[in-house]
Amino acid sequence: MRHSQFWALLDDVFGEAYAGTLARELALDALDSRTCRDALDDGVPPRDVWHALCDQMDIPMERRDGGRRERAVPPPR
């Protein structure tokens, strides 16, 4: 997953207005309480950040593609 795919998914799943807030402010337990932005800046792969966010927000696997079935979301590691 590329960074651009991460940001597009974030907007599609959470909505553009809420996505920015989540990325800046939500501390993710699975990523040592880093935000999405901090984790990405620290070099955590976007795929891992995406699944950590979705896990914490209780987003089921079938919704993690943002409603676009043609978009392939890599599975969690």
Task: Give an overview of the whole structure.
The protein is an all-alpha fold and 77 residues long. It has one domain (3-63). The protein has 4 helices and no strands. It has helices spanning 3-14, 16-25, 36-41, 46-56. Helix 1 packs across helix 2 (16-25). It is globular. The model has no long low-confidence stretch (mean pLDDT 92).
Keywords:
77 residues, mainly alpha, 4 helices, globular
Q: Measure the end-to-end span.
A: 12 Å
| Overall strand count | 0
Could you give the order of the helices and strands? HHHH
Question: Could you say which structural class the secondary elements and strand pairing correspond to?
Answer: mainly alpha
**Number of helical segments?**
4
Q: Provide the number of structural domains.
A: 1
Beta-strand residue percentage: under 5%
Tell me about the largest β-sheet.
none
* Rg computed from alpha carbons, rounded to a whole number of angstroms: 11 Å
